[in-house]
Amino acid sequence: MQHVTMYSTNWCPFCLRAEQLLARKGVAQIDKINIEELPEARAQMMSLTGRRTVPQIFIGSHHVGGFDDLAQLERAGELDALLGSTPAQT
């Protein structure tokens, strides 16, 4: 499974939703970078993504975008391949 990194804040509901979706996909560990606790991380995030909002999600070295982008990948059936996993059996 690919490594997941997410720029976030403590209060962001979309960050929580992204974590929940990734957990359902079997992602056990997310490297969370809190841009409120690490002010220099906000500048880093903006430099890497060109975006100011959280979450900003990376799967491996691929910048996914925010929660809406992550959810769109799931709806399109592309998230499992990006994560390097097989779809969960229901």
TrEMBL record:
Source species, domain of life: Bacteria
InterPro entries for this protein: GLR_AS, Glutaredoxin, Glutaredoxin_subgr, GRX_bact, Thioredoxin-like_sf
Keywords: Cytoplasm, Disulfide bond, Electron transport, Redox-active center, Transport
Gene3D superfamilies: Glutaredoxin
Entry annotated with the keyword Cytoplasm: yes
Domain Glutaredoxin: 4-64
PANTHER family xref list: GLUTAREDOXIN 2, GLUTAREDOXIN-1-RELATED
Record-linked NCBIfam families: GRX_bact
Function: Has a glutathione-disulfide oxidoreductase activity in the presence of NADPH and glutathione reductase. Reduces low molecular weight disulfides and proteins.
Similarity comment: family membership: Belongs to the glutaredoxin family.
Name by which UniProt lists this protein: Glutaredoxin
Species: Uliginosibacterium sediminicola
UniProt lineage: Bacteria, Pseudomonadati, Pseudomonadota, Betaproteobacteria, Rhodocyclales
Recorded name of the encoding gene: grxC
